Amino acid sequence: MATMGAVYPYGRLLQTARTGIAFVPRRTLTYSLPRRSQQDGNNGPNDKPEDQSKPSALSSIKDFFFGGRSAAAKPKITRRATAPPKREGSLSADSIFAEDEATPKLIASGRTPAARKGAEVVEGEEEMVYEVESRNRGNMAAVLDPRPKARMRWERKMVVRELRRRGRLTKTEQIMRTERESLSKSHWFKTSVKKLGPLARQIVGKNIDEAMLQMRFSKKKAAKDILEHLQHAKNVAIVRSGMGLGEATGDKPVTVTLKSGERKKIFNPSSIYIDQAWVNRGPYGVDYDHRARGQINRLRPPYTSLTVLLKEENTRIREWQDRESEALRKRKAQLWTQLPDRKISAQNQYYSW
Fold this sequence. Notes:
alpha+beta; CATH 3.90.470.10; 3-stranded antiparallel β-sheet; two-stranded antiparallel sheet; 10 helices; Ribosomal_uL22_bac/org-type; ribosomal protein; structural constituent of ribosome; Ribosomal_uL22_sf
């Protein structure tokens, strides 16, 4: 009866039967880390010179039976050299940050790591110097100017437009250059359009401070979120657009008539007011309503945001003046009276009195 212990004797029998095959017993697989060898140099921390190493008793016995020590030196393990230092980039030739003379590179002062002290420059390699003029403009044009023909057409179009207008600006361009405005959109409020719409219509046309006062004393739940958004919108308009920084003049206030027919006195032409406010429908969330008998209803709470467009009172004054001038022009156009429908023979070019 064959057992596991009989595997090894079977190998011996096979070896005696076939003399040309050498028997190799089974052994476990092992893995050793690959190491690079070098014939000369002491780079390891435990490496010692050959003359300082002392022969042991076992090594002397090996030398007696198998011969003396070979004259060739044993290979020794070396450490991998450190990576070369990184080189700093350079600017293009026409960059506004480029200087006439290259400034010295910044070198870290103070204590440096111990590994960097032993780093040496490899012999035969020269340090490459990258000058500003060595940039290839052809490679950079692929990103800076991807469509040169389209750019040239656009530049030509702009030049022709300026020549036709003789440097005069349109009314829209003049308004955008002289008047300030700021558009601010809020985050998503957990409310519906039906609830947020009346609050948006309530603050339209009011001064920013008056609208914030309205939301502060409002009983609506969404009024608190609108108040925070109006405060943020006011700060953004002041910091980014420079709105509301003027002082009230000592002259008499300007009385304007709004589109709704309401009369309003403006004391400070640079004060901020809400020109437009609209509601944006957002995504729907997921909520659950636990009912009796273990039933659960799935709810879809809506999310809505508010967007406000802030302008200065100068814009309101200009719009009122435009409406007044248009109405005056229409009234003057109606002053001309058509001649009565008479026969040509009965009409005379001179007055009859």
